[in-house]
Structure formats: structure tokens, C-alpha cells
TrEMBL record:
Record protein name field: Integration host factor subunit beta
Similarity section: Belongs to the bacterial histone-like protein family.
Keyword Transcription regulation belongs to the record: yes
Self-association state and partner proteins as the record states: Heterodimer of an alpha and a beta chain.
Pfam families: Bac_DNA_binding
NCBIfam families: hip (TIGR00988), PRK00199.1 (NF001222)
Its biological purpose: This protein is one of the two subunits of integration host factor, a specific DNA-binding protein that functions in genetic recombination as well as in transcriptional and translational control.
Entry-linked Gene3D superfamilies: IHF-like DNA-binding proteins
Keywords on record: DNA recombination, DNA-binding, Transcription, Transcription regulation, Translation regulation
Entry annotated with the keyword Transcription: yes
Length: 95
């Protein structure tokens, strides 16, 4: 599912809301998650999962095409850990 599909589905399920209002809400939620991660905060959505930022140290990598060594700088990357309810729900639907 992509963001536009999410917005369309939410607008369908809530006929009292205009699609443009649903789009604003979805964008506001995603923007706030991104802003919180940029500040270094952790975002937890109970039953869904938690977003956090992890630090990756500088290292020597390899260019897969040429095999040459490449210096990779240290960086901070977003990380998502699924919640227990989401894991159980996905596992149940796969069976």
C-alpha cells in the first residue's frame, strides 16, 4: 500500500471527512514522526511498533561492482521495530 491508497481507504471509511482533510491528517502524522526522529526522539505507536534512530559507525565498505574499498562515513539511520500485536497479526494471516 502506498500513501495515496492509505488516504483513499481512510476517506472511504470516513465519508463525513473530505479526502483533502484526510490527506492533511496523514501528512501531519508522517511529518511529526519524521520531525521527532530528526530530533533524536523515539516514536511508539502501541500495538504497531516503534520508530527510533540508530547510530552507524564509520567503516570500510566495498564497491560491489569493482571490489574497491570505499570509506563509509558514520551516520544516523531510522529503525523500526514491530510491536507484538502487529507481529502476531501478520503471523496469523500468513498461516
Amino acid at each position: 500500500m502506498i500513501k495515496s491508497e492509505l488516504i483513499a481507504r481512510l476517506a472511504e471509511e470516513n465519508p463525513n471527512l473530505f479526502q483533502r482533510d484526510v490527506e492533511r491528517v496523514v501528512n501531519a502524522v508522517f511529518d511529526e514522526i519524521g520531525d521527532a526522529l530528526a530530533r533524536g526522539d523515539r516514536v511508539e505507536l502501541r500495538g504497531f511498533g516503534a520508530f527510533s534512530v540508530r547510530h552507524r559507525r564509520a567503516r570500510e565498505g566495498r564497491n560491489p561492482r569493482t571490489g574497491a574499498s570505499v570509506s563509509v562515513k558514520d551516520k544516523h539511520v531510522p529503525f523500526f521495530k514491530t510491536g507484538k500485536e502487529l507481529r502476531e497479526r501478520v503471523d496469523a494471516s500468513a498461516k
